[in-house]
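@channel sequence for tomorrow's demo:
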Amino acid sequence: MNYLRIKNGSAISLYKLPSHTYNDWAMEALRLLKEEYFHCASYFAVRSSADDFSLILVLADDLNQDVIVLSSSIKGPTPIKLKSLTPQIPALHLFEREIMEEFPIVFEGHPWPKPVRFSFNRCNHNDSIIDYPFYTIESEQLHSVGVGPVHAGIIEPGHFRFTCDGENVLHLEIQLGWQHRGVEYLMANKDNGLQRSILAESIAGDSAIEHATAWAMVAEALSEQKVSNQLAIERSIAQELERLAIHTGDIAALCTDVAYHLGANVFGILRTGIINFLQAWCGNRLGKSLIRPGGTYFRLSKDLRERLKLVLADYERRFIPLSHLTYKLPSVQNRFDNIGVVTTQQARELGLVGMAARMTGLGRDIRKSHPYAGYIGSSPEFITLPKGDVFARFLLRRKEIKASLSWIRHILDTFPFDDSFMEQPSPQTLKFQSSQLAVSLTEGWRGEVCHVALTDENGKIFRYKIKDPSFHNWKALELSLRNLEISDFPINNKSYNLSYCGFDL
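structure tokens (generated this afternoon):
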């Protein structure tokens, strides 16, 4: 069967994309996804005309460092009924649910056909978020506990429904989709490149750099712009600083949950040093405005490089001894050990990515499998852990922090930075090639981000598809709470630190 292989961060002509009947397409998709080194990076539908649609499946080939694009043309009368692939590939369950929510397409045999977001452009406006069909067990002995969607503080909206036998959780179902912000719609319909960059930074606020990088790679592929090695290196340094900051903050939050206040305070302070450097670099502690297609307004000057070396040295001097002490505390080990376990097989079936996959021994890291930007030829140490519990997620953060520190230091010491370099972006004047499909994959601190853009015959984006790693990984949180006490939920939840807004697009 014909399909296209491309590299991460590249574009192809839509005319070169083979299209197949759904049955042939489904057989090939199943064949590929049953191979251990393939996983679904994105899967969505595109409306061709009133009753004609295309299904686009983007697969990551982790062995050959390729991206595979499979397309199928389907047409009415609506609703179009297709055989679901979810019973054989559970990782596709949310992708198929999303397609059913947005288009008059029904995947027959889908075991869990529920709405994903109740978005403004959903196909059936009679669907109401208040009628969400939660899973229930009829029993006089069991009870349900509902938490949210309104939470204390600044946490975003999400409803958690626990089915319990006493304090023991038998089942957790998480209902998201309360924000339905229409980000994908806006990315397709805003013609101003600067507005799109600002939107990309807002997809998930704690992941502004990784999403902005994914958008920049798509825009550069569509406009056939090449960027220098120095700009690519600076983007990757920024991504590793984002990883350092958020991982450190997560360790602080986990210390708070076990009442280890020394760790919570010191790790919180260490996070501040990293994000303050980002503010010195570009004026924003989350790295907003730093990444722009085609160039940068904020180069990593010699003065900033020297300052960064001092910041990282001070960070490492305080982080290493306290992190070793923290991880050896019996009170920490007691609370995190064997809590919230996910196995390698479960991770593979659920299609987990990033940290949630690596803590089970499933080695998924786009920096290694599909290198981009400054990771081409050099990337941080590739780390996996086998246990899959809260402690593994806790420990993996420490190990990834040390790997990022080592990589940044190596780059600062060896890369031949040119201080006369100034690659000016042109976000408002981007001209995209006509009838193209572009794919970008980045590895954020949570895991794999995927952006896909399609342009029409005039070079205008008519479909923009975003996938945050949380789209893959929320189901792991549900599964990992089974047969634990309900009091284990806050620690388990914090150990993933998944995104609500990255899910609710």
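heads up for whoever presents: The domain at 209-432 is CATH 1.10.645.10 (Cytochrome-c3 Hydrogenase; chain B).
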